[in-house]
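Task card 7
Instruction: Convert sequence to structure tokens.
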Amino acid sequence: ATRFVVSRHRPAVWDGDTIPIEVWTYPEDSAYADSVPFRRATEIVETMQRLVGPFPYEKLAHVESSTRFGGMENAGAIFYAEKGYADRTMGEGVVAHETAHQWFGDAVTEYDWHHLWLAEGFASYLGPLFFELVGDSARFHQIMERNRRVYMASSVVDRPIIDTANTDIPSLLNENNYPKAAWVLHMLRGEIGDSAFFGALRAYYATYRDSTALSSDFAHVVERFAHRPLGWFFDQWLLQPGDPRLAVTWRYANGALALEVAQTQPAAWGHFRLRLPLAVQLENGDTDTLTVPVEAQAETTYRHPLPARPTRLVADPAGELL
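Output:
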């Protein structure tokens, strides 16, 4: 127990409900907390409400504490490790992540620990998404690129996200259930489009609020909004280990581009199905944008007519795929 300074931020309002927002800090850290990590604490809640649905609890307090985790998403009273305050390294990212957990992880909880991505992956995506939604797309992409690098450098790339063979529950708090799972949601959004993705997100929350869910429950909601089966997507990204490693070769002949896309990842990872964006720079100065359907097999060939000879090809120029 200790003395706290309590800052009362502007409450978040939704359909007549008022959600008090408070920041509890040690006195020496109060000015820093209010001006840096929690300066938009109310805006984060309001953004998540517009994105997902009403805040599920009566109030929200952000509390400096001695928790062993960087943040712990206790419902209505999030705890943050004191070290980030003391060394002044704490930023808005952790606040957005833990606030997103109030919806996913707290109000909607995974039925089984092996489906942890339904909590940590959702928070790891919705946290960065806050920045995109308030107009800072550059920061959103910066965080997602960091997530990509962290996952790629991890020791769990040869394990699937839903890793039922792993019975050591704490070790599931790994790069598969955080950064990789965030990328799965980002790619799902790209696969079905914003309207279907965010519609499904809201419906999933409304259906399972104050309850538990499995990955299959989320998948069924997504398929309903996408109007097509997506079992292949969830199977390859949740049940297969690793990620696609692509070798793209090309040649130009008789007015057409001939592509070969080889999947070079370890055989134990399996093959992946995806749509590969491709930017083709032409010798006449134009740029042609293609989408190559890559099949779940060792090699995919693709042919496309072009108005001029290509000089350079860039696969996935916007970094949309893991």
